[in-house]
């Protein structure tokens, strides 16, 4: 495995009390005014750059940050505490609530650099939970919210049911090891074949360049503490993205959450041929298309 190097962006550092949080920015291409500022929020088992700024030779537009930057958006991602380049010093398991606190600190920093323009926020898996909880706590900072592989109560999730068998182990420690085999298991546990092996290999290399272990907190929360988000308090226009084969996001669970969202500017999209980790799937460009349509939606003229 070679060391993965990221380029073409600008690194930033925000602070949450005494905790340093790493942010990565790629600016909108061209001279036209930015169409908006996107904040991408990573999941339980990987830092932000491998998820959102991946490079795979022969696979165009593997970096969703580059793809949106080329279409006029300023793009940012951030490593939550305990992941990647962010601080790993505290003896805590970095749960969902802590991750939402990270987003509060990171968003405050971003807003100080973009003129205070509310953010377009995308989160995947536990990152979707962090993003939704952040949007619930700080509605004035979120212009639009996209939740991919989201879970509300956990009902109907075979992956969480299986993961809960190891809950006592996860509760006993703050971090869990990861390796190439684990990353590959993300793509084989639900429906093998939806992602190319070479893409998964590149993804794993990028993840393991930054981390050989990750916090347990999101696993503990998703297996034992759901629901963590009140849909009636998520006020932003919201897009729910659900992969056809995703074992985390139970369909009926998501529909009930969607029905309770108070803002009628909302969409629910089922993505055919996709399991989990949608940006690394064979059908990744369809995900980009859905997200771009939602983030570039014209403002409503009525009411």
TrEMBL record:
One GO molecular-function entry: hydrolase activity
Domain Serine aminopeptidase S33: 63-279
InterPro entries: AB_hydrolase_1 (IPR000073), AB_hydrolase_fold (IPR029058), AB_hydrolase_sf (IPR050266), Hydrolase_4 (IPR022742)
Keywords: Hydrolase
PANTHER family: MONOACYLGLYCEROL LIPASE
Identification of the protein by name: Alpha/beta hydrolase
């Amino acid at each position: 495995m070679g060391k993965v190097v990221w380029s073409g962006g600008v690194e930033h550092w925000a602070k949450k009390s005494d905790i340093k949080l790493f942010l990565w920015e790629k600016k909108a291409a061209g001279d036209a005014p930015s169409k908006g500022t996107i904040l991408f929020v990573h999941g339980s088992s990987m830092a932000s750059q491998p998820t959102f700024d991946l490079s795979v030779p022969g696979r165009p537009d593997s970096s969703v940050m580059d793809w949106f930057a080329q279409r006029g958006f300023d793009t940012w991602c951030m490593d939550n505490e305990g992941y990647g380049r962010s601080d790993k010093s505290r003896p805590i398991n970095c749960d969902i609530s802590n991750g939402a606190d990270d987003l509060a600190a990171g968003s405050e920093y971003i807003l100080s650099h973009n003129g205070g323009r509310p953010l377009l926020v995308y989160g995947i898996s536990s990152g979707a939970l962090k993003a939704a909880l952040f949007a619930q706590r700080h509605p004035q900072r979120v212009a639009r919210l996209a939740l991919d592989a989201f879970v509300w109560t956990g009902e109907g999730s075979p992956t969480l049911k299986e993961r809960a068998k190891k809950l006592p182990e996860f509760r006993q420690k703050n971090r869990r090891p990861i390796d190439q085999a684990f990353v590959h298991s993300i793509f084989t546990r639900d429906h093998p074949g939806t992602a190319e092996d070479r893409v998964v290999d590149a993804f794993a290399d990028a993840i393991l360049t930054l981390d050989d272990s990750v916090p347990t907190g999101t696993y503990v929360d998703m297996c034992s503490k759901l629901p963590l988000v009140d849909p009636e308090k998520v006020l932003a226009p919201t897009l729910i993205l659900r992969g056809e084969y995703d074992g985390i996001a139970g369909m009926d669970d998501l529909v009930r959450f969607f029905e309770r969202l108070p803002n009628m500017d909302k969409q629910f999209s089922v993505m055919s041929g996709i399991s989990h980790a949608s940006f690394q799937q064979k059908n990744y460009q369809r995900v980009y298309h859905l997200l771009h349509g939602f983030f570039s939606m014209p403002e409503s003229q009525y009411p």
